[in-house]
Design a protein that fits this description.
mainly alpha, two-stranded antiparallel ribbon, 18 helices, 2 strands, 2% strand, globular
């Protein structure tokens, strides 16, 4: 009993961080999560023609700078609040997720001994180190559920600002400060990471809509209903933009979300009803919601010609040549990466050095048709394989343990400590989407989605800390 009281006190002390001295913390969180996905810069020629747009580097530098800023801000507050400092030290000592993250980071450091291009490895390591600090600060700050909502609202505003030019660009209107590229890529450079961003953020938008719907049901305040409608309209527009992008990986991630979340609700539903009949009816409704989500996604695929043709093309390729034909160039990237892992199983070829080592392996399994004097292959299109190739199998195992821990923690419900909200469904959906995207694309090689990975880790640990984080 005494241990439970101490754990509640620790959580309460962590929740107080920034409430008295740093009143701008909520605004800082909101601004970061709003601005980071929108950060990019363009360059113009002397004649005023757009010839270059940088999408990833501004996000990288902003993410690094903000991570150090927030961590410094966080530590400064701990210097004034001894109770919060004690709680943070307890988190540092006893949180198992933080230990796994430390082991993963150690694997990244060890890979530097094998690197071909130290500058690329050090820049990538600097970003990971900044995210490590960001994780620690956010995991403590997010122990207060109110803080999480500022991050969610920031993400929602970013999605709104991102969606508007995306839809405009899709219908052929030129936007002067964005490259005229194929698909509504908006601030992410091209359509795949743009669609991935939507798939990752959508669960939190729906979650925010549900929150305001529940508040409206209790209070009947028109403002809450207006917020609910605003979030639902945003989700509908972003969902439409995703299918305008016709990214197969994003569509698969969305399908995985629609399947996993209703199943999770079905199997984890507690006996809230007094009779078995009512409980069975509740589970039936959950399954109907799942089928409805799948029907909506399939309908959207059929409505948008690009997505429909993309899916049909994938089916035809699978019928013609199986998985090797369906995977296209990934078949060669993955096979050659496996050869790279075979030659460097423990330390890899060096963090951030897959693209520099690939010229030595581009035909070790099968000759990559995309690799030639004019075209270079920079990413494996599978983050699991690329992580193992760059940093070794042990680093991959540490990451998988850390990532799998987040799914394990979802078995624990904590609505009583989270103002009655259950954060598990949006977390599960976004974690599932990220897992699918990592298998077919390279989110961990992009500055924003790498940060989003650490955001999910921090949110998952904060939701369960300290009572369930063992």
């Amino acid at each position: 009993m005494g241990a439970q009281v101490a754990k509640k006190q620790n959580r309460g002390s962590l929740a107080k961080i920034g409430t008295s001295r740093f009143v701008l913390l909520n605004g800082l969180l909101f601004f970061f999560f709003m601005s980071l996905p929108l950060a990019f810069c363009s360059a113009f020629s002397a004649s005023g023609q757009l010839y270059l747009t940088l999408y990833d580097l501004p996000k990288l530098y902003l993410g690094i700078g903000f991570s150090f800023l927030l961590f410094s801000f966080f530590c400064l507050n701990l210097g004034y609040d001894k109770v919060a400092a004690t709680a943070a030290i307890t988190f540092f000592k006893h949180n198992f997720g933080l230990k796994l993250l430390g082991l993963f980071f150690s694997g990244l450091i060890l890979s530097l001994f094998q690197t071909l291009v130290p500058a690329a490895a050090l820049l990538t390591l600097a970003h990971y180190f900044a995210l490590f600090l960001l994780y620690f600060a956010l995991a403590c700050i997010f122990c207060n559920p109110v803080r999480r909502w500022f991050a969610v609202y920031g993400l929602s505003v970013a999605l709104f600002v991102f969606t508007v030019p995306g839809i405009i660009q899709f219908y052929g209107y030129k936007i002067p400060f964005l490259l005229p590229i194929l698909g509504p890529a908006s601030t992410f450079g091209y359509r795949n990471p743009a669609a991935h961003f939507i798939a990752l953020v959508l669960p939190f938008v729906f979650f925010a809509a549900g929150r305001h719907w529940r508040i409206w049901n209790r209070s009947k305040r028109p403002l809450q209903f207006a917020f609910f409608m605003a979030f639902m309209l945003l989700a509908a527009a972003a969902l439409a933009l995703l299918f305008m992008n016709y990214s197969r990986t994003a569509i698969m991630a969305l399908l995985a979300e629609a399947l996993v979340v209703p199943l999770f609700w079905f199997f984890s539903r507690r006996k809230a009803a007094s009779t078995a009949t009512r409980q069975s009816g509740g589970r039936l409704r959950l399954m109907m919601v799942g089928f409805l989500l799948l029907a909506v996604i399939i309908s959207l695929i059929m409505v948008f010609p690009n997505s429909r043709n993309r899916v049909k093309s994938s089916i035809n390729k699978f019928q013609q040549g199986g998985f090797s034909r369906l995977l296209e160039a990934r078949y060669y990237h993955w096979g050659n990466s496996l050869m790279m892992i075979k030659d460097h199983p423990f330390l890899g070829v060096g963090l951030g050095n897959w693209r520099f080592s690939y010229p030595l392996y581009y035909r070790s399994f099968a000759q990559d048709p995309l690799f030639n004097y004019q075209t270079q292959v920079r990413k494996a299109h599978n983050d699991y394989l690329q992580l193992a190739a760059e940093c070794g199998i042990p680093a991959l195992l540490f990451f998988l343990l850390l990532w799998g821990r987040q799914f394990y923690l979802l078995r624990y419900a904590t609505p009583a400590a989270d103002d009655g909200e259950d954060w598990r469904p949006p977390l599960l959906a976004s974690l599932t989407a990220f897992s699918v995207i990592m298998f077919f694309s390279f989110p961990m090689q992009m500055a924003y989605s790498r940060m989003f990975c650490f955001f999910l880790l921090a949110l998952g640990e904060a939701r369960a800390w300290p009572a369930l984080s063992k």
